[in-house]
């Protein structure tokens, strides 16, 4: 519907951030002390190019209406725009349109699966096909110690409601899932894990985890929040059962995310939220439900946000996800080299680029992450500090908080080089510079 | 550089050698407070006199940033030896300053060294750090008054 203008430099095998930066107006503003913004927090939320903002505005100014209702022209156009976005996003992750459910964010997507399983577990009047999602005492849900709270707490809650047991793979010293730390069993019903750690940047051995889950008949739920925005991801090829990702981490709007589910699973799964739009037939005595994905999209959905996310995947496709991943790894190498050269700085997570994304987490001896972040902020550098919604992982590494730098297409080598300079300045400010070397 | 506005020398001094650091016995009540956004935590103990009217001692163990550690240290200096009422008045003044977005003029007569934290008020993300120890103190005093000394 909206012709998205291709970003400058699109199609080149090597990504040129300088050519893309004019698309991101926010990057030209100044921050504290009039310094240029150095935005190294895309793992929390990414910035949006004008192509995404334009697509949302164009939709709202020309086509806005409630989708999947009404027969007027605007309703038709709005529905077409919404479904076109679904198709393009599906193609972007190697899925069919009907396998994609729009949710408000990845957190809601995981909760949708957990609550659908919870509803199945009550075993009162749902169809026989929902029985495969039922859990009870003795059943197991398996996660890992490196999960974001969004892929941990919903499963803890599902266990509490059903009597199932939560188990988890531990994490190695180098920040990898320790595959030797747990054996799945015939009672394992779900294996849920992050494709890429939102803190450490380590990429999970998806094929091996899927193989193990399949061997015991467990469903695989992939938290793809930190992979889909940064690297080529083909969900069909990964052979996972469910996957989630959020729009705002992939140059798209907030308020929209995606739950992917294999068709036969979505067809068998009971709804989570119920109400308008998701029904087939409603009588006072009871109702039947629409086929997926509508079954899982109760109420008038977010629309301009979905259209914006469609524009975001167009933008990402034009850049090329292989080129983007290579670019982020180049930045990660600069960050790792610069930080490792500083005595007293410890990388938390993989120190090589093998099976890794761009995210880099670290601690500074003698300076709390908050204080490092404050010094960086004073220099215009925005990073995330704290536990990044992965508290158990931080406990595992014996730290309360880390500093995390994360990147996207618009970050430059020069910006990332400023990170290490800023950390060095923090060490000097707090009087711990040169600790351990005597210089 | 704005950094010095937040990290005034007096704050850095308290951070480097915090007062009241290390949990002490005897105590009447203990409170543990956690900042859920960053995982920082403080355990703070309070000893009041027999009448429950005067603060005899405060000790704490703080796992956190320079601001939270320095704030707990300054708190110790300000409230030990004060009546509970006076300590609560100081606490209220500190809280008003910390949450004032830099628009509250602190009263040095009430707050002493704690006026150094006025700069922190301009950074909303750090206000919780500055308040962590004070909230633990308030909670511990309430626990003594309610007759339940242990951490919840």
From TrEMBL, chain A:
In short, the EC number is 2.8.1.7
Give the keywords, sorted. Answer: Pyridoxal phosphate, Transferase
What are its GO biological-process terms?
cysteine metabolic process
What Pfam families does the database record attribute to this sequence?
Aminotran_5
Named from the GO MF annotations, one term is: pyridoxal phosphate binding
Q: Which reaction does it catalyse?
A: (sulfur carrier)-H + L-cysteine = (sulfur carrier)-SH + L-alanine
Q: Where is the Aminotransferase class V domain?
A: 38-419
UniProt keyword annotation of Transferase present: yes
Q: Which cofactor does it need?
A: pyridoxal 5'-phosphate
Respond yes or no to whether keyword Nuclease is given for this record. no
The EC category is transferase
InterPro entries cross-referenced by the UniProt entry: Aminotrans_V_dom (IPR000192), Aminotrans_V_PyrdxlP_BS (IPR020578), Cys_dSase_SufS (IPR010970), PyrdxlP-dep_Trfase (IPR015424), PyrdxlP-dep_Trfase_major (IPR015421), PyrdxlP-dep_Trfase_small (IPR015422)
Q: What does this protein do?
A: Catalyzes the removal of elemental sulfur and selenium atoms from L-cysteine, L-cystine, L-selenocysteine, and L-selenocystine to produce L-alanine.
- UniProt similarity note: Belongs to the class-V pyridoxal-phosphate-dependent aminotransferase family. Csd subfamily.
**Which PANTHER family does the record cross-reference, listed alphabetically?**
CYSTEINE DESULFURASE, CYSTEINE DESULFURASE 1, CHLOROPLASTIC
Question: What is the protein's given name?
Answer: Cysteine desulfurase
- What high-level taxonomic lineage is stated for the organism? Bacteria, Bacillati, Actinomycetota, Actinomycetes, Pseudonocardiales
UniProtKB/TrEMBL annotation, chain B:
A Pfam match: NifU_N
**InterPro entries, per this entry?**
NIF_FeS_clus_asmbl_NifU_N (IPR002871)
Q: Which domain of life is it from?
A: Bacteria
NIF system FeS cluster assembly NifU N-terminal domain location, by residue?
A: 6-129
* CDD domains assigned to the protein according to its UniProt record, in alphabetical order: IscU_like
Quick one: a GO biological-process term for this protein? iron-sulfur cluster assembly
MF-aspect GO terms: iron ion binding; iron-sulfur cluster binding
To which protein family does this belong? Belongs to the NifU family.
The name on file for this protein is SUF system FeS assembly protein, NifU family
The species this protein belongs to is Pseudonocardia dioxanivorans (strain ATCC 55486 / DSM 44775 / JCM 13855 / CB1190)
